[in-house]
Amino acid sequence: MGAVQVFGINHVAIETDDVPATVAFYEDVFGLRMLKGGEGAAWCQVGEHQFLAIFEVEQVARGRAAHFGLIVKTNEEIEAVKSKLRGTYGLNVLEASYTRCDFEDPWGNHVQVVDLHDESMVWLLPYREVQVLGIEFGEPRPPASVEDL
Fold it and tell me: Does residue 74 form part of some domain?
């Protein structure tokens, strides 16, 4: 048997104590479309090939290192997300050096939002959306070491 080739992430799972409110939040902030749900769980489409799985738990745990990241097209979209998070939901938005929009959703799930210019070209090449946008990236930098490949 040959080496296994991973084509991408199928889904990310998060926890909540209120599935309908969590679905409404992600639909409102990111325009995700609910695929199905019921009995303490829901699934929302993310892009063309992935989904966000939302599972109900008795008690959510905040502040862990676990997180997921979403890519939006432009800095303007990042600003719109930050505005909605702060204005509509009263959430604290952290602005880190790499991701200009880090936040915890109301259930303690850590989310990072980047735009297409924040990402490394190697991660974006497979996305048809990137290939047709005509986004210009800076000159590729050679890796500083083998670990940077």
Answer: yes
Alpha-carbon distance 113 to 119, whole Å? 11
Query: What is the pTM for the complete model shown?
Result: 0.65
In a domain, residue 142? The reply is no
Q: pLDDT tens, 58-108?
A: 888 877 777 888 878 778 888 899 999 999 999 999 876 556 788 999 999
Nearest Cα to Cα of residue 16 among 85, 106, 113, 112:
106
> Do 106 and 149 touch, CB atoms closer than 8 A?
no
- Domain with 108 in it: what CATH number? 3.10.180.10
